[in-house]
Design brief:
The protein is an alpha/beta fold. It has two domains: 125 residues, Rossmann fold (3-Layer(aba) Sandwich), CATH 3.40.50.10140; 57 residues. Helices cover 47% and strands 10% of the residues. The protein is built from ten helices and five strands. A five-stranded parallel β-sheet has the order 2-1-3-4-5, sandwiched between helices. Helix 5 links the parallel strand 4 and strand 5. Helix 7 crosses helix 9. The longest helix is centred in the last third of the chain and has 15 residues.
């Protein structure tokens, strides 16, 4: 798959391996409103999984955690919520086959909904923002070049992401969150639309 045709994801979907059938139902419900879903489908919660986590999280609008009896004590779900919060991503915990009282407190601080209400969540994610204009996308790319740091470095550097916000605001007189700007950069990078920074082979 070339960069130009690479799938850019809207939602990061977390679920346990025992719930693959239910996860496919969730993916389809999200796809029904036009959302592209990234499902890592890991067999193990290991270093390989963690290494591949950053990029799909960065480009996604939201994270959906599918919580069932089999994943109530999942370290993976807690880790993914923490990673999403670090990137200021909205998190939706969709539970099925358990009661609300059984949802762990660390997950209950997020938006928690029954599986039967998933369609409403999908519409909320879809309607949460409007696309940027071409001149605004150009301003995002210009702010990135002015900053002179690779996208991955911006993701992990709050000071750099703050400067990115300031540069974009100065150029457009429009305030957007660092999460939104980094997400747009991650998507542009995936589509091959970011020119390499001076003296660097890749962004």
């Amino acid at each position: 798959m070339s960069a130009a045709t690479a799938t850019v994801y809207d939602v990061y979907l977390s679920h346990g391996p025992q719930d693959s059938g239910l996860a496919e139902l969730v993916r389809q419900k999200l796809a029904d409103v036009g959302l592209e879903v990234y499902d890592p489908k890991p067999k193990k919660f290991d270093a390989e999984f963690l290494t591949g986590l950053r990029e799909p999280l960065a480009e996604s609008r939201a994270v959906v955690i599918l919580l069932t009896r089999s994943t109530l004590d999942s370290d993976r779900a807690v880790y993914e919520v923490g990673a999403a919060m670090a990137l200021d991503k909205p998190v939706y915990v969709v539970y099925d086959g358990i009661s609300l009282d059984e949802v762990p407190p660390v997950l209950r601080s997020q938006t928690v909904v029954r599986l039967s209400n998933l369609k409403k969540v999908a519409r909320q994610i879809r309607a949460a923002e409007t696309p940027l204009r071409d001149d605004e996308m150009a301003a995002v790319a210009a702010a990135y070049r002015e900053l002179g740091l690779p996208v991955d470095a911006i993701i992990t550097n709050p000071s750099a992401s703050g400067r990115l916000v300031q540069s974009f605001r100065k150029a457009t007189r429009k305030s957007l969150s660092s999460e939104r700007l980094i997400r747009e950069l991650a998507r542009m990078r995936k589509r091959g639309e970011l020119r390499p920074l001076a003296g660097k082979k890749a962004s």
